[in-house]
Amino acid sequence: MRKLTKEQKRDIRAIAAKRDEDIDFSDAPAVVDWSGAEIGKFYRPTKKPVTMRLDSDVIEWLKADGRGYQTKANWLLRQAMTHLTERTRAGSGKRHSKRIGKGK
Known about the structure:
By secondary structure, the chain is mostly helical. It is 40% helix and 0% strand.
């Protein structure tokens, strides 16, 4: 992200100093229909680098579509996390966990 210019910083300070009642919103009418709104569309959680050992066929599958395989993996994990979280909430309130893999 590029840094703000002195003029931009000045403009931000001037707007921040105004009271809400003094801001003219006439060129931006109020939105009354929020039916098409998407929750979290622009939410970008912080990323954290990790090292994982994945089966080679899983990696090949993730990379098959080209660039963005890490984003794809993150999306798949988020979907699983959301699904499992919702299932746990809908259940008896107990947390269920399964270990996957050999010897566990």
